Amino acid sequence: MKDLKGKTIRGGLARMLAQGVNFWVRLVTLMILARLLNPDDFGLIGMVTAFTGALSLFRDFGLSSAAIQRATISGAQISMLFWLNLLIGLGLCLVALAMAPAISAFYREPRLTGITAALALGFVFNSLGLQHASLLQREMRFTAMAVVNSASLIAAGALAIAAAAGGLGYWALVVMALVGPLFISIGSWMMSGWVPGKPQRGTGVGSMIHFGGILTMNSLVQYAANNVDKVLIGRFLGIDALGIYGRAYQLVSIPIDNLNSAAGEVAFSALSRIQDEPARWKSYFLKGYSLLLAMTIPIAAICAVAAGDLIQVLLGPKWGAAVPVFRALTPLIVALTIISPLGWLIYSLGMPARGLKMAIVIAPILVAGFVLGLPFGPVGVAYGYSVVMVLWIVPVTAWAVHGTNLSLGEVLQTASRPLGFGATAGLAAFGVGLLCESLPPLARLAIQSSVLLVVYGALLYFAGGQKQLYMEVLRGLNFRGRGEA
Fold first, then answer.
1. How far are the Cα atoms of 34, 254, 373, 473 from residue 328, in angstroms, in the given order?
2. How many domains does the chain divide into?
3. Of 321, 308, 299, nearest to 253 (Cα)?
4. Does 16 reside within a domain?
5. Which of 186, 239, 290, 439 could serve as 43's disulfide partner, Cβ 3.0–4.6 Å?
């Protein structure tokens, strides 16, 4: 691909800017809804999505990723994948409808039947635009994707806030869950300009279905393990406990999801294009990995040192019980930031089976951590989650790089600099916080965040040897494109 470096950098910038917008939209939406709704409203939706979320892993059967990973793909193949996605979406909708009474009976909560039935429509809405979105990503049209995703998120948040203000309670969250995928599908059709043809036999999509099937199984195992915590809390500790845990987890996951999603889309597309050029692939991976860590580590640091102020400012005073849960989950930001990019490595090189094996190994260990923490309430479950994932960092990294031209030492060395600088900046912010204890939470949070970012940025730029990398990124923002160095 001509000017792949420039396309990657500009695409990354577009996605990061969009995810910055999305971060604030999600955060502001959460802040407003947390004040308009009660913890049990969030708890009800959390009970349902713990189950329907597992179904969502089958929504495209990994066919979008398979289409992106392929070196070449025909129009007939894309059309066939579209119709397969639509068929899968309709099937998942029917399965969710059938599950509704069982979910309600499991939690002994009759309101869940209607909620589950309504959320089932989201599978159909989502399936209509999956291949259109994959085309945009394959062509590295990340600005178009950014516009679609941001506009959809803003529309969903605005309608949810309006519904909550109108007294609809938990139905406001249902509205938000349905509007997002519907608007994304509509926007993806408009931006791609592609209209699917009739389904045809003999298009040669079998290998893509195999690739996508392994990806789906991997995601299913990971999802099941990562959501046992919510099922256990909802079943044994109640709706309020799940609402508290869920909001703390959401605050932790927002920066992870935004940054990893933006970087992952760009990195997977770029690395897949150069999978047969080992030296170039390695250089791209390590640079992208370094940039992602550099952006995420300071978020983890401020969450750790200012958990109480963050909850007070973002959610309000009635969410004080979420503070210890939120603090216990902050190591998860670091762990997932280090681990998640390993997926770029595995899938761009066409090794989905390795990812599935990793998921199968970690799943029972993670569930054991949740079960051991459950007697100590939501805080215990949060600590169980964080401890297991932190201990998993080195083994999973070694496993991921085995047999590639990357080494464990290279990956850990790349991660060590931002981690060390983040810890140093966090200590500086913590000390400043002690001196500002008399200030209001918002003022104290602003001061601590500023100190942390200044110290961290200075260390990263001057002591971390990152100046050349950042200058290379700036040069790559030449939108006329010069070709590659």
1. 21, 16, 12, 35
2. 1
3. 299
4. yes
5. 239
Whether 483 maps to a domain, the answer reads: no
Domain span at residue 426?
4-475
Tokens of 15: 């996605």
Within a domain: residue 484? no
d(CA 361, CA 155): 40
Q: How many CB atoms lie within 10 A of CB 430?
A: 16
Taking the C-alpha atoms of residue 195 and residue 189, their distance in angstroms, rounded to an integer, is 8
The closest alpha carbon to 153, from 269, 56, 19, belongs to: 19
- Does 480 fall in a domain? no
HSE-up of residue 93 (Cα within 13 Å, Cβ side):
16
Place of tokens 């199984």: 217
**Torsion sign over Cα 333, 334, 338, 339:** negative
Q: ∠ at Cα 23 (246, 299), nearest 5°? A: 80
Q: CA separation (Å) from 443 to 30, 35, 313, 432?
A: 20, 21, 10, 12
Cα distance between residue 95 and residue 56, in whole Å: 11
Residues 6+ away with beta carbon under 8 Å from 256: 296, 332, 333, 336, 337, 340
The helix/strand/coil state of 329 is helix
Closest CA to 328 of 385, 372, 371, 376: 385
Q: List, in sequence order, the alpha helices (H) in 340-407.
A: 342-348, 352-373, 377-391, 393-401
Structure-token pair, residue 464? 């971390």
- Report which residue type is found at 175: V
Check: CB of residue 101 under 8 Å from CB of residue 119.
no
CA distance 460 to 453: 10
3-class SS of residue 341: coil
Residue 467 pLDDT: 59
Under 8 Å between Cβ of 72 and 95: no
- Of 11, 236, 239, whose CA–CA distance to 110 is shortest? 239
Categorise residue 195: left if φ over 0, alpha if ψ from -120 to 50, beta otherwise. beta
Decide: 392 and 362 in contact? Cβ < 8 Å. yes
